[in-house]
């Protein structure tokens, strides 16, 4: 309990200091600017002189489809339901040139080569041109923490089907690393040089393109991935990489916003590279925005829930990516989302000068958001507790946003439904975790797994509502689905029915085809109408 009090106290002092910061001014932070680029103003986005809060969706695969008509139809459908931002992968790294499909960067023989051809960077040109026709902004992610295929893991799916099958950090480390630890990506200057070459190419190509809302440095960066981390990796390692890479991008592109892309993990007790320092002589009122009392309430609530939930019945869906090692924990009494266990301190990253807004993610099937070290049951068996815990996670993020004074976006959220159970692939894996035989056994025993349709709808509505009420700049669902797509063997939309259904977009457990589709579309549409 001592450490929880220490946590609460350090949250309090952090917030007191932050609330005294002077407000920033710079071209990207100039009040309600009339820039055609999206800018920030306090904790809001603005464009063309108007506030811009967005409902978005994820479709990492969108530029890499086989037909431009398919891309056009999907964008039209997104626009119909109020989606104004789509988050995509602006990277697609390979170790050998594939026979079919698209790719953007070859990482091979101690060198990297950008594919400038029609199945390369031109896919992004096409997507940008099409998105404009539907007034949809593109949110470009530059690399991925996750690449389980680095361990030669076979997959049932074609390349580019899973979001973790686009190369990323571990592919660079595999090619250039000395110790082959994941964090060499953040610290080895040769690797950073190779990554920055790609970044330089991409960012300068689109520096004057207003259809891009932001550069996101990496999806879900952390110390560990499919490759292990070294003992040296900690929150400072990850923060430093974000701060320096953001500064590098800023030097090439003064127009676009830059964000981190992390899961949003907190570590109030971790040492800071960017400590919030009070302005001398400032007389701004000290306030903790209610976070300290909220933390204490969350702790009390969770203790109650834990004592009740111990006998809960149900199968664990969660492919939880557990905290890497004791060494990185600041305190064993605090949950891994709050104690620096993953090497991420999202508040320190958000305070870096060239990071314009923050991000967080929400995947209760894969991550425990409890503030104490104990784990509540996954959504399937204890939906109400999970919902409460996730609402608290969103509140903690909006509190942090208001105290730091930059916008924050929920950049990806999703729940695994019963219908999607057999499709669910966690980020550290290459194949579904629940096998059909196991599922049959589960059904026979009457145990729950995955949420039902009504639960998905109520959770998504609750998250959208909580997010916008708390003042988030944007809320982005994961992930969009589509069918009747042009298929081709060897591409992410298969030409044979062997694996997956003909002409259907990727489903990693979070796809929304079938009964969920209309509900999720309606939830996004409702949110876009009440938060224009
Ligand atoms: C590395 O790749 C670049 C770009 O493809 C090429 O110009 C260069 O000659 C290559 N360097 C080596 C040593 O192969
Ligand atoms: C970084 O990687 C390069 C290329 O593999 C290697 O030569 C160099 O020794 C590494 N630097 C450090 C500090 O490990
Ligand atoms: C993914 O993480 C979970 C939890 O740490 C672990 O049980 C599982 O074996 C991991 N999967 C792979 C393929 O490493
Ligand atoms: C969830 O939160 C609500 C409101 O704070 C509370 O009334 C309810 O008891 C909580 N549910 C559980 C299962 O803890
Ligand atoms: C599938 O796509 C084709 C060609 O775009 C179109 O003619 C057809 O109506 C579509 N079918 C369905 C069920 O959407
Ligand atoms: C894909 O491959 C399968 C099996 O080899 C074949 O039956 C099918 O016709 C191919 N489809 C296309 C679109 O090439
Ligand atoms: C959307 O809003 C309508 C009207 O307010 C409401 O009846 C409906 O339940 C909402 N649907 C969803 C999925 O949120
Ligand atoms: C789900 C599914 O049909 N998986 C198949 C994918 O393809 C491989 C190789 O052909 C099969 O072994 C899987 O059963």
Automatic annotation (TrEMBL):
The keyword Iron-sulfur does not apply. It catalyses: Random hydrolysis of (1->4)-beta-D-mannosidic linkages in mannans, galactomannans and glucomannans. The keyword ATP-binding does not apply. Its EC number is 3.2.1.78. Gene3D superfamilies: Glycosidases (3.20.20.80). One of its GO terms (molecular function) is mannan endo-1,4-beta-mannosidase activity. InterPro entries: GH, Glyco_hydro_5, MAN-like. Belongs to the glycosyl hydrolase 5 (cellulase A) family. It is an enzyme of class 3 (hydrolase). Residues 1-20 form the signal peptide. Its main location: secreted. One of its GO terms (cellular component) is extracellular region. It comes from Russula ochroleuca. This is mannan endo-1,4-beta-mannosidase. Keywords: Glycosidase, Hydrolase, Secreted, Signal. GO terms for biological process: mannan catabolic process. Residues 35-264 form the Glycoside hydrolase family domain.
